[in-house]
Amino acid sequence: MEGKDISIYIHIPFCVRKCNYCDFNSLVPPSEDTVFFYTDALIREIKSRGELLSDRHLVSVYIGGGTPSFIPSSCIGRILDLISSYITIDDDTEITLESNPGTLNEMKIKDYVSFGINRVSLGLQSAVEEELKILGRIHSFEDFKENYDKLYWGGIDNINVDIMTSIPLQTPESLIKTLDEVIKLEPKHISAYSLIIEQNTPFYDKLRYGLLPLPSEEESYYIYKLSQEYLVSRNYARYEISNYSLEPGCSKNTGGKDYRCVHNPRYWDRGDYLGFGVSAASLMGDHRFTNTADLNEYASDPGQILSEDLMLGQKDAMAEFMFLGLRKTEGIRCADFKECFDVDIDKVYGRVMRYQIDRGFARTDGKDEEKRFCLTDTGLDYSNIVMSEYLLDP
Amino acid sequence: MKIEQDHIRNFCIIAHIDHGKSTLADRILEKTGLLTEREMQDQVLDNMDLERERGITIKSQAVRTVYTAKNGEEYVFNLIDTPGHVDFNYEVSRSLAACDGAVLVVDASQGVEAQTLANVYLALDHDLDVFPVLNKIDLASSDPDRVAEEIEDVIGIEALDAPRISAKAGIGIEDVLESIVLKIPAPTGSPDKPLKCLIFDSLYDPYKGVIVFIRIFDGVIRPGERIRFMANGMEEEVAEAGYFGAGRFIPCDELSAGMVGYFTATIKDVREARVGDTVTSAITPCPEALPGYKKVNPMVYCGVYPADTRDYPNLRDALEKLQLNDASLTFEPETSLARGFGFRCGFLGLLHLDIITERLEREYDLDLVTTAPGVVYRVYKTDGAMIELTNPSNLPEPSEIDYMEEPVVSAEIMVSTEYLGAIIGLCQERRGIQTGMEYLEETRVLLKYDLPLNEIIYDFFDALKSRSRGYASFDYELKGYVRSELVKLDILINKEYVDALSFIVFKDSAYARGSRMCEKLKGEIPRHLFEIPIQAAVGGKIIARETVKAVRKDVLAKCYGGDISRKKKLLEKQKEGKKKMRQIGSVEVPKEAFLSVLKLDDE
Which of A219, B270, B272, B455 is the most buried (most CB within 10 A)? Predict the structure, then answer.
């Protein structure tokens, strides 16, 4: 009998340099020893939690960061090797590695393929050199294209490309240029994020001093909508707020397959996942726990020092079900809610749902068992406001 | 200890704000041994947190202490603290009625100020013997000779032999104590006559019920005795009588003529023991009551609403309790389209309003929304009727109005010549009419103005302070009503008329005020998913407009495993923010927006 589904996230907090907008848990490692030292810590953590993987069915592994492609591929190999000693990794298991252009080469790609990695996410952000420069990216558009081709011909053809909107200096024309260049390559998946200026980043300080040539709010909104419409018109289906996949059947390239990411929707569907590494978060049932964000603290006793460790109550779980599920354009299936919580969704959220439908923020699809509830495009634009209405008073 | 009546001194300390009244009171208590230094908490008499924070006295307080004078005899001092602010003249007058004399504290560098005068006149009205004390002589800028002369010239009381002290540094306190013994008369009255005492304050205590503060003029009060409140004829049995320790009540066997103290009975209803009433014996009542206090009418009105409509009964209870200790607070139920159920409350002034609302929020844990404060207008209708208008929403149709009158105060402003021009300018802007100008000395002027009350209730104090760098002082009293060109200014948010934001203004000020209000509101109302026009209108005609632009998007681009808790916090914040909003049509308006329009000149 096959066990319950589980996914694994592995955090590699190292980069060649930190981008100007980045507030993720990442750093430039002082020496290669730091990387090996960290890999050892990861190995210890996986060993200490390995029994949680037994009798489970592994659907996906995501190696994110930071820039996992930046560290020696042998480190990645050690980790995946150890995981496979606890749980079966089969051909259907999606294994994604995050990478940045300029950090990949044929040797690494060959290794990745041999480890079973079958999907790579490439952080491009923009095809316009000035925009890459102001973001503080390490690569040119040419570097990206070269890396992309190497991946493709090296045997990894399931590739995601990250692009960004609301970049300083960006115009509708420059966005179209980026999109055109990317679409030409026919990647299976595109993520389009709008830039958010976070505190404790160089961008934040620049903005405060009025030195960041951001598009105006109106332009920014226009660019954001343009990215959505343009991608959809080029056969990229928007399946989540920022994620698009090549429509099956639109190109010989897809072979009729659905290229939506397997791993990320696990978060929105509240599936079980284990996160390994500094600041990595896990959800097992309603138990959410997150490793410390302090690298030294993490390494001192990997997986034991937590920044968050809580059992979600039913109300919290319900709210999460809604505000995560509604990120997907297909929304949530009402019967799933009942299955999860043993109560009709209408009883808990009927009023809010009807109110949002009336205001044009949401709609229902299908009937009876297949009835779904999802946000409209407008609802997605204002999703913070809309989703906050699903929080329940304790 | 048997207390001889001629060894009692009942007195208060009066002063302009910041001249050192509370510090002197503390020194007196310390020197007379009521407080050891360890027990000294800064400004013992200012009980409420609010009083200590703002450095002002709101409630009257009383304390008893014993002083051994240089002649070797012991004197009982009853010190009754009084509020210093013009808004609280009513409370001052209550406290004064319990005293036989007053110590006038004057800052030896600043000299006589507007409230110094007002308080002295009040004390003299109550037939109190007043003697001055020159404070802050340790300051380099002090000039006690000049100030003593000024006191004699301006007030006309002897000041050349006034004690020269520093309450802060503890200099000259003995002098003050001796002067109290020598210059303040002992109380008169006979313990053998029927009981006659004045209620000068009261306090609600959850365990003892109402604690009644009294000054006994004749007779003796003892536990077990039946007493009568002369205003309403209510009879009660005294449960406890006593005097005031430092911050506590000390029971005793009896209080006799000339003494100050308190008693409790089983009084539960706050309205039974009205301040100003006379208490007498139920068995052998005195023939007539003491003269009560001048009934003071509220000058400023505003609507007070609970932010959460379910708090309405709690708000009513809280107002009733506050009214027990503050007879000048009035309130009656009112409903507003935007606010729901609340009360229209009357206050003595803007500070009084501020303090009451703050006490309601702090001490009674209520979340309130208040409307723009206004004065009482007289509206003469074409049918000959006159209505007193406390709520702008009730203004009749323009066609029904013959003319309107507004209250005017006569104000006295003391200012140094340096800022004379600026202050005259301010008074003119506020539609003031000068009625007098006197040079008190070469560099100090007493200005007299008639000013519409409406023009001074919002921010006149602040403007006066800032234009004179804090060197002007101000006092006023209601003079009467005069005819005026007035209009109702309405505010519309997203085309919805907001009754809580309407108010009556002088016709020629409507445009400026309306524009400022729209501007202010624009800064306070968060952006919505749609554009929100904010308009000011007079008689249906729009005179000013601002627009709150629409939000285009509000979305978190990334939400993966590590982001979920953060995302939830973000959504919670969003939801919390929304709870604090008041719904006006489809627009959510934060509570602060209603307050912000009251303070239009704060930048």
Answer: B455
pLDDT at res. B52: 47
Alpha-helical segments (H) within B137-262: 144-150, 173-183
Q: Among A245, A265, A285, which residue terminates a domain?
A: A265
CA distances (Å), A33 to each of A69, A75, A278, A297, B565, in order?
17, 12, 17, 17, 33
List beta partners, residue B102: B12, B130
| Numbered ranges of CATH 2.40.30.10 in chain B | 196-281
Cβ contact, residue pair A267, B561, below 8 Å: yes
Contacts of A154 (CB under 8 A, 6+ apart): A106, A109, A110, A113
Shortest Cα–Cα distance, A107 to chain B (Å): 30
Helix (H) or strand (E) holding B118: helix B114-125
H-helix segments, chain A: 32-49, 73-84, 106-115, 129-135, 141-154, 172-184, 202-208, 217-233, 264-268, 295-300, 314-325, 334-341, 345-358, 377-381, 383-388
What pTM was computed for the model? 0.63
pLDDT score at B88 = 59
Which DSSP string corresponds to A267-328?
HHTT--EEEESTT-EEEETTEEEEE-S-HHHHHHSTTTSEEEEEEPPHHHHHHHHHHHHTTB
CA distance A45 to chain B (A): 17
In A, which residues are within 8 Å of B551 by CB distance? 382
d(Cα A325, Cα A241) in Å, to the nearest integer? 11
Helix H or strand E segment including B456? helix B453-456
| Rounded Cα distance, A32 and A28, in Å | 10
Which positions of chain A have pLDDT values less than 50?
Answer: 1
CATH 3.40.50.300 fits B5-183, yes or no: yes
Spans in chain B with pLDDT lower than 50: 36-46, 52, 54-60, 602-603
Assigned token pair, A186 = 């026919």
Decide if A308 touches B, using CB distance below 8 A. Answer: yes
What is the model's pLDDT at position B338? 64
Say which CATH topology domain B487-596 has: Alpha-Beta Plaits (3.30.70)
pLDDT, residue A174, reads: 97
Closest by CA position to B595, among listed B455, B501, B497, B461: B501
ipTM metric: 0.90
The minimum CA-CA distance between A98 and chain B, rounded to whole Å, is 14
CA distance A355 to chain B (A): 13
Q: Which of A203, A273, A188, A279 is nearest to A237 (CA)?
A: A188
* Both structure tokens of A203: 């961008």
Whether A311 contacts chain B with CB within 8 A: no
CB contact, 8 Å: B579 with chain A?
no
Residues of A in contact with B552 (CB under 8 A): 217-218, 220-221, 381
CATH 3.40.50.920 fits B300-370, yes or no: no
Residue A327 falls within a domain, yes or no? Answer: no
**Closest Cβ–Cβ partner in B553, B562, B575 for A281:** B562
Contact flag A381-B570 (C-beta cutoff 8 Å): no
In sequence order, what are the beta bridge partners of B98? Answer: none
CA distance B528 to B534: 13
What CA–CA distances, in Å, run from B178 to B32, B67, B102, B437, B540? 12, 9, 14, 39, 68
Residues A125, A45, single domain; the answer is yes
A305 belongs to a structural domain: no
Domain end call among A227, A246, A265: A265
Q: Where in chain B is the domain with CATH 3.40.50.300?
A: 5-183
pLDDT digits (tens, 9 = 90+) for B240-283: 999 887 667 888 999 999 999 999 998 876 667 777 789 999 99
DSSP B19-69: SSHHHHHHHHHHHTTSS-TTT--SSTT--SHHHHHHT---S-EEEEEEEE-
